[in-house]
Design a protein that fits this description.
The protein is α+β, with helices and mostly antiparallel strands. The protein has 10 helices and 27 strands.
Length: 443
């Protein structure tokens, strides 16, 4: 007899929702597997706590790409969540759906029910939005939303003024009727707490007797029967013991763009030649597994400001203490918000059918730690960050196994800048310093 009806590998943003929804049927048993640990920590609740996860190997896989040939051989940092809730437990909580053309293009490519008008009701169903139940927002979903408008640092208003002076569009709601333009972001935060799918979907569902969650459990292989049907998963527990779990109905891989293709390859599904070189028996020769990896190159520009920024509040110890006390007593203040407070979607001169770059305006500039024990530290002067990435890059990369052993670091080849050019934007605020960093956008 099978142990479960459904086995879900990966308790990230999608896996948590899948587990919660499937277990609504009391007649089925569901197992959710997560290689990371629990998210029952104050630091996962407090929005600003994500700074502790950015370089924390306990909660972040901290992947790196192979040297990028079009970026002078740089190895780019690729953070991925290693905790219940996945990357949704460690990201900056910006709540943006995507533009209409993203979904309509999926539908035009032969994916029925994936057009914007098809998916909008499902986006509305997720939300508990203070605007209420409107054409664009929902008010009865589990995920609380906070529009940061009216709560952001005053320098964000200067960003919006600069956009207007540059004759760029401004929008009141990037998830509303007008997607394009500069504005203040919405966040999946409610009452000063992160609203990950783990917190909002999975945690309430864990009281059901038909839903099991196994943490610190590494899925090493998908199991198959003689006909080639997936029947279960081989697990490695924290103590090193290995055992198999079985599914009656389905094995669902929800381990993300990195983890899912790696698990398929470890199970013998992928390009036969590559598997053979690693000493893995080929079960199905599917060369497309791990190919066409797509991500957004994000470049961060550091600016020194002539007006106060969050650096002035959060650099001194007394300022940190004041912000912490305010958060603990009111669940408000800078620690209750995302640091990416303003931004928007814009067109470069080459764009013809919609916005093709996204900007993030961060009212604080900080040093990137070079140690896994370091924390993000504000610069010792007023500063801010202006980051941007392309929205729909043409470059395609790949992800695969670097070694046959489960748990080995992946071979990530982002292949950034293989097509097109890196866009630049000029803003009427201050001149940027001559330093910048590049990374995978991650979430």
């Amino acid at each position: 007899m099978a142990d479960y009806d459904y086995i879900i590998v990966g308790a990230g943003s999608a896996g948590c929702i899948l587990a919660a929804r499937l277990s609504e049927d009391p007649s089925v048993r569901v197992l959710l597997i997560e290689a990371g640990g629990s998210d029952k920590s104050f630091w996962f609740d407090m929005p600003a706590g994500y700074a502790r996860s950015y370089f924390n190997p306990a909660t972040n896989w901290m992947f790196k790409s192979q040297p990028e040939p079009n970026m002078a051989g740089r190895e780019l940092y690729c953070p991925r969540g290693k905790v219940q809730g996945g990357s949704g437990s460690i990201n900056a909580m910006i709540w943006v759906r995507g533009q209409r053309s993203d979904f309509d293009d999926w539908k035009a490519a032969g994916n029925p029910d994936w057009g914007f008008d098809d998916v909008l009701p499902w986006f509305r169903k997720i939300e508990n939005h203070p605007a209420g139940d409107t054409e664009w927002h929902g008010a009865s979903g589990p995920v609380g939303i906070t529009p940061m408008k009216g709560q952001t640092h005053p320098i964000c208003d200067r960003f919006l003024t600069a956009a207007r002076e540059s004759q760029l569009p401004v929008t009141e709601d990037m998830n509303g009727a007008r997607f394009e333009g500069a504005g203040i972001y919405e966040t999946n935060i409610a009452r000063g707490r992160r609203q990950s799918s783990s917190k909002t979907y999975l945690t309430p569902a864990l009281g059901r007797p038909n839903l099991d969650l196994r943490l610190v459990a590494q899925a090493e292989q998908v199991l198959f029967d003689a006909e080639g049907r997936a029947t279960g998963v081989a697990l490695r527990a924290k103590d090193g013991s290995r055992h198999d779990v079985h599914a009656r109905a389905e094995v669902i891989l929800s381990a993300g763009a990195i983890g899912s293709p790696m698990l398929l390859q470890q199970s013998g599904i992928g390009a036969g030649g590559d598997l053979q070189r690693l000493g893995i028996d080929t079960r199905r020769n599917l060369p497309a597994v791990g190919q066409n990896l797509q991500d957004h190159l994000c470049a961060s520009y550091y600016y020194r400001a002539t007006v106060p920024t969050l650096n002035d509040q959060l650099r001194p110890l007394w300022g940190q203490a004041m912000a912490g006390l305010r958060y603990l007593t009111t669940r408000r203040g800078p620690l209750a918000l995302s640091v990416n407070q303003a931004g928007g979607f814009f067109r470069t001169e080459s764009a013809t059918d919609g916005p093709n770059i996204q900007l993030y305006f961060n009212p604080m500039s900080y040093r990137i730690p070079e140690s896994t024990k370091a924390r993000l530290l504000p610069e010792p002067y007023p500063g801010f960050l202006l980051c941007f990435n392309s929205c729909r890059p043409d470059s395609r990369g790949s992800v695969g196994l670097s070694r046959p052993e489960p748990g080995a670091a992946p071979d990530i080849r982002l292949n950034f800048l293989a097509t097109g050019v890196l866009f630049c934007a000029t803003w009427r605020i201050v001149r940027p310093k001559a330093t910048w960093t590049a990374r995978s956008s991650g979430a």
